[in-house]
Design brief:
This protein is α/β, with parallel strands linked by helices. It is built from four helices and seven strands, in the order H-E-H-E-E-H-E-H-E-E-E. It is globular.
Length: 176
C-alpha cells in the first residue's frame, strides 16, 4: 500500500528528530507521508528556530518510488524524486545522512534485501528500517505489482548490528 500503519508515526518521527539529519533518502515514498513529516518537523522547525523564512529549506530530501501511479501533490516536498526500483537505482545514489526504508523490505526477495541493505550501508550514516512484525500475503494493490509481499518471517540475522524496537504491529531496526 502507498501508506503504512499510523501507530508507528510518533516513535519513528521522534527517532528522526533526535538525529537532525541534513539529508534523507526515503525509499518507497508511496503517498509521501514521511517526506511531509520530515520536512515539517525538521526543516520548518529549524527555520523558525534560526529566524529563517518558512520556505528557506535546508534539509535535502530525496525520494524513490517504483510506481509512478502514486504521484500526488505531497511529493512536492521532496527536492528530488526518482521513479524506479531502488535495487536498480542504488548504485547511482550519493551519500545521505539518513535512509528511511519504512514498509519496503517485505516487497523484495531475501537475496535482494541483503544486497540492498549492504549497498545502502555504504551510502548513509544512519539507517532506519521498519518491517511488519508478521508479513501476510499480498498481491498487487492499485495496479502496482511492486506491492506484492514475499512472505517469510524476519530472522535476527537479517538485522545483525541493528537495534530493535517493537512498535505496534511493526518492528523498527536502526543503526543508531
Amino acid at each position: 500500500m502507498p501508506t503504512s500503519r499510523s501507530d508507528k508515526i510518533s516513535t519513528i518521527l521522534g527517532m528522526i528528530e533526535k538525529l537532525t539529519p541534513n539529508s534523507i533518502l526515503d525509499i518507497g515514498v508511496g503517498f509521501g507521508k514521511w517526506g511531509v513529516l520530515c520536512r515539517e518537523y525538521l526543516d520548518v522547525n529549524r527555520a523558525a528556530a534560526e529566524g529563517r523564512a518558512y520556505s528557506d529549506w535546508k534539509l535535502r530530501l530525496v525520494g524513490i518510488e517504483a510506481y509512478e501511479g502514486y504521484r500526488n501533490p505531497a511529493w512536492g516536498v521532496y527536492d528530488e524524486m526518482l521513479i524506479g526500483d531502488v535495487r536498480e537505482l542504488v548504485e547511482s545514489l550519493g551519500h545521505v545522512d539518513l535512509v528511511l526504508g519504512i514498509d519496503v523490505l517485505e516487497h523484495m526477495p531475501d537475496y535482494d534485501v541483503a544486497k540492498l541493505m549492504l549497498q545502502i550501508r555504504m551510502r548513509s550514516r544512519w539507517r532506519l528500517w521498519c518491517v511488519p512484525a508478521r508479513v501476510r500475503p499480498q498481491g498487487a494493490v492499485f495496479g502496482n505489482q511492486y506491492e506484492r509481499h514475499f512472505v517469510r518471517g524476519w530472522r535476527p540475522t537479517d538485522f545483525a548490528g541493528y537495534k530493535r524496537k517493537d512498535v505496534g504491529k511493526s518492528v523498527v531496526f536502526t543503526n543508531f
